[in-house]
Amino acid sequence: MRVHVVSDVHGRADALARAADGADALVCLGDLLLFVDYADHSQGIFPELFGRERATEFIALRAAGRFEEARDMSARLWEALGGEPREHIERAVRDQYARIFAAMPTPAYLTYGNVDLPRYWGDYVRDGHHVLDGQTAEIGGLTFGFVGGGLRTPYRTPNEIDDEEFARKVEAVGPVDVLCCHIPPAVPDLLYDVVARRFERGSEATLEAIKATQPRYALFGHVHQPLAARMRIGRTECVNVGHFRGRGRPFALDL
């Protein structure tokens, strides 16, 4: 059996529609939405609402670690736009999710990323889409465990949770053959983004679970250009499945 795995889709509905070609199932590790594209400032919800020039300013502030200034800038733009910000955001989010879930192949096993808004998913999942978080599924005779979301950061992305809540989901999954998370285990080489030149947050709970239970694979995304895309922790092969928006192709797992 072959399983294709993707993460960090960020709006790539065109490539997602082909992501399961040649596979028996698709696993998606989240981050379906694109709020702003650091490579192409014209793409995403933010530039759709405020324009490319403002998106470039916003990205520059965040890249420089000037988060309060970025939030102040965003607040001024929302005020100038008029109306309720929630209405504008909901309309843009729903539009993206409608396109993404329409393109999502079946069967697909999904968990959430740190930029996702889980409360909307139920309106768009189709038959054959299995959404799992702190839960397991049998695929090809192996047990896959799924842990979604990210941990708290200065970026304040929508689906960041406390370390304790994340750890409870890891514990609920228990020993599995394949552990699937959006974020990596807390290993520096897996967390460093060589283009952004910063460390992303990884999970200590995931790392401890890998050491204790030694799944066959630990799969994740989140870090778009990692210093190390894969490494072994004991018997476990840890794999960053790749930045799907940038690559447009899945990671293939033969079981």
TrEMBL record:
Residues 1-226 form the Calcineurin-like phosphoesterase domain. Coiled coil: none annotated. InterPro entries: Calcineurin-like_PHP, Metallo-depent_PP-like. It holds the Pfam family Metallophos. It comes from the Bacteria. Gene3D superfamilies: 3.60.21.10. This is Metallophosphoesterase.
